[in-house]
Structure to design on (759 residues):
């Protein structure tokens, strides 16, 4: 994950890797030797090929398959279906619209609760408090835990009869006990809190790095100008972290679109926990596979994901072109 | 999943098998045309070349069934001198990857289920018929079992090993205490449930977090109302969902809803089994694998069983008893040793070897040793033996996509608000069955 995060940091905010070579002998292009050409074409060609085979080819194939009916066995069984699969998911498939709503709710919750929480943790831990490292590790641990472990941990909290939460509420073992995972009116909230637990740690780590990168003289200058701590943070430090902020926005959107593991561990994304990603998995993997419908769902998810990706890329590269 | 006890201890896959599975699924994505060319290969030539052994793919990865199949292969090797290479795969993986498994390089023989799930692959030409084997073992099995082993083309494909009936399980001591009696009719069941509710017990234990257990109730009400044949035709989508017969099933069921455990959607069948053991619920409709959860021998001795009461047609002729057994892949069809192995599992000798380790299921071959049966096992076996037709459970009789993607959410919604949109069920069924 940290690798993704690093890749997402716009180039201009990275440490300058050698100042741009000044063109001394302008106008005269240096010829590349044959060996240079081979090396270059290998270095460009191989990644391009990998990208094509493992990303673009499957993507194009999914789009293609979403307009067919296929049982996943022989290729001769593929039959054209027009837009039937899309009509099916939008009109006949009951979990589809709830899934869209849940993804939106998930996004809103991460953006309004989880991300600000991560920012708050980062700001608090950035102060020179004792044991800061230990706290950092504690808050970051959930990001590293496996899916199965997370399921077990939250099961301990949310269980109906023996769970910690019902015990604290004093309803444990009584008929009033809330069934946090089984009651479809509350389980999405229970799942989002579990997701927040992970997401906040992730955001915290990125912001901690961002805060370390803010020039301390900016803060001093603000203090000399008479700004209080809150003003310094919101008027000076936060805007100075703009590159990180963009990364966080993109990560939050992506995380809300690919939210999957928590609901899958709880009940495979049924009964109030429908999410697009869970529906894609259900329709594409395993015995219950309906490739056309699953591909159509995947394409819907792809189109939605393209919005933040295009936004991010246009911002990053738009700026690069200008400079 | 699938009417199957969840793995509590799933054995790790052999590394080679694991790599193979990855390879197969990768190949399944990349080289489908190549693979289809492969599967059309060697036709079944039973009894042809004498081979020294066979490979056997097993999805029975839980500790006890795994050892039980080990006992079967050992007995086979001892009897015939042919070796069996067993590849054990965790059962969820085995089921989920069956498509690429059968198209890649499957084992000669492998564990699977009767019903639509077997017939589908038979009709796609991915299985080898074993009529030669049935010519020898046919007399060991009842007509109902033979019917369940037949493919859509009338040839025999499947050899049953064991099965287990679905019915209501209850604690004898509780029922004796309160003077409850086994209900023979649906009306009696409702009266009994109302009495239990008044006594402060949840009348019918229920768990549907995993989605599939509710299909058992649906199947039974459907078969008791509309008959076994309707169940089969509905599952194969030869009957429409959008008709009064189906609406009637849900109307009948809604009379039971107030008596079923209201916490059903948050618990697994293991939770519900514990609730029955703790005397919190009065009875519980599930497969006989429920008894695996009663680890206390005193509780296990106190458990009894009765068949789903009659509602309208056919009395109690049909019983839901999923059959597990073996199939031959197209590749295994050419291997004489594989045919011999299929024959062996269809004999009392082979089934005794299995049952000597795993006694929680009911042997299917006539003449197999039943002397070690507990009274409960005996009752289960009698129920199956007396049945005129054996259904395989909704997710084995119907298209898997229909069961998993449509019925699970639909039944969960029904449990919540007691409504079922049969028009929508029909619309979904049309699209999914058309894609096959």
């Amino acid at each position: 994950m940290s690798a993704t995060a690093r890749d997402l940091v716009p180039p201009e905010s990275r440490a300058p890797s050698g100042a741009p070579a000044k063109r001394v002998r302008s106008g005269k292009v240096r010829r590349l030797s044959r060996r240079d050409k081979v090396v270059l074409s290998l270095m460009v060609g191989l990644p391009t090929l990998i990208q094509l085979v493992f990303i673009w080819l499957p993507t194009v194939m999914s789009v293609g398959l979403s307009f067919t009916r296929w049982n996943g066995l022989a290729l001769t069984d593929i039959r054209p279906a027009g837009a039937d699969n899309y009509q099916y998911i939008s009109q006949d498939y009951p979990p589809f619209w709830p899934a869209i709503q849940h993804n939106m709710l998930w996004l809103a919750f991460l953006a309004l609760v989880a991300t600000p929480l991560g920012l708050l943790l980062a700001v608090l831990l950035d102060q020179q408090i004792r044991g800061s490292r230990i706290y950092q590790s504690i808050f970051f641990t959930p990001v590293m835990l496996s899916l199965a472990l997370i399921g077990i941990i939250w099961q301990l909290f949310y269980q109906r009869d023996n769970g910690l939460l019902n015990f604290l509420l004093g309803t444990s073992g009584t008929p009033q006990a809330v069934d946090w995972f089984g009651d479809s009116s509350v389980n999405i909230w229970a799942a989002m809190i579990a997701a927040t637990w992970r997401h906040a740690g992730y955001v915290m780590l990125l912001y901690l790095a961002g805060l370390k990168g803010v020039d301390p003289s900016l803060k001093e200058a603000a203090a000399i100008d008479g700004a209080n701590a809150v003003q310094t943070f919101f008027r000076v430090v936060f805007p100075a972290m703009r590159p990180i902020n963009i990364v966080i926005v993109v990560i939050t959107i992506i995380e809300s679109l690919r939210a999957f593991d928590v609901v899958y561990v709880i009940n495979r994304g049924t009964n109030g926990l429908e999410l697009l990603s869970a529906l894609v998995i259900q329709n594409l993997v395993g015995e219950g596979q309906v490739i056309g419908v699953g591909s159509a769902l995947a394409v819907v998810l792809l189109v939605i994901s393209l919005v933040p990706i295009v936004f991010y890329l246009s911002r990053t590269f738009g700026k690069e072109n200008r400079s | 999943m699938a009417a199957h006890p969840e793995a509590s201890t799933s054995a790790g896959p052999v590394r080679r098998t694991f790599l193979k599975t990855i390879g197969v699924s990768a190949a399944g994505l990349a080289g489908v045309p190549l693979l289809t060319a492969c599967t059309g290969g060697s036709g079944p030539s039973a009894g042809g070349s004498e081979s020294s052994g066979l490979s056997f793919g097993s999805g029975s990865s839980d500790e006890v069934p795994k050892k039980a199949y080990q006992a079967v292969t050992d007995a086979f090797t001892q009897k015939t001198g042919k070796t069996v290479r067993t590849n054990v795969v965790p059962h969820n993986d085995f089921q989920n990857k069956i498509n690429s498994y059968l198209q890649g390089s499957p084992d000669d023989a492998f564990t699977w289920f009767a019903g639509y799930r077997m017939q589908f692959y038979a009709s796609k030409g991915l299985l080898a018929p074993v009529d030669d084997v049935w010519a020898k073992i046919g007399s060991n099995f009842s007509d109902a079992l033979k019917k369940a082993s037949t493919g859509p083309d009338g040839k025999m494909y499947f050899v049953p090993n064991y099965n287990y009936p679905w019915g209501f399980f209850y604690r004898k001591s509780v029922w004796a205490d309160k003077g409850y009696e086994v209900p023979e009719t649906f009306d009696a069941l409702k009266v009994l449930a109302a009495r239990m509710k008044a006594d402060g017990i949840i009348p019918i234990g229920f768990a549907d977090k995993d989605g599939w257990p509710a299909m058992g109730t649906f199947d039974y009400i459907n078969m008791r109302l509309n008959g076994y044949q309707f169940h089969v035709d509905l599952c194969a989508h030869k009957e429409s969902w959008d008709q009064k017969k189906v609406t009637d099933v849900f109307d009948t069921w809604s009379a039971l809803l107030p008596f079923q455990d209201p916490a059903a959607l948050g618990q697994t069948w293991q939770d519900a089994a514990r609730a029955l053991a703790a005397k919190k619920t009065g009875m519980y409709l599930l497969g006989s694998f429920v008894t695996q959860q009663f680890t206390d021998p005193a509780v296990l001795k106190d458990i009894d069983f009765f068949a789903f009461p009659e509602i309208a047609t056919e009395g109690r002729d049909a019983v839901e008893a999923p059959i597990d057994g073996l199939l031959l892949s197209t590749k295994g069809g050419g291997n004489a040793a594989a045919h011999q192995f299929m024959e062996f599992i269809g004999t009392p000798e082979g089934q005794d070897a299995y049952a000597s380790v795993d006694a929680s299921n009911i042997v299917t071959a006539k003449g197999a040793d039943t002397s070690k049966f507990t009274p409960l096992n005996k009752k289960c076996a009698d129920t199956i033996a007396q049945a005129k037709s054996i259904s395989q459970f909704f997710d084995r009789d119907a298209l898997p996509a229909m069961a998993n993607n449509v019925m699970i959410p639909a039944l969960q919604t029904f449990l919540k608000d007691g409504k079922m949109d049969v028009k929508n069920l029909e619309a979904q069924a049309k699209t999914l069955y058309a894609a096959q």
The CA atoms of residues 7 and 302 of chain B lie 25 Å apart. Confidence is low (pLDDT under 50) at residues 1-49 of chain B.
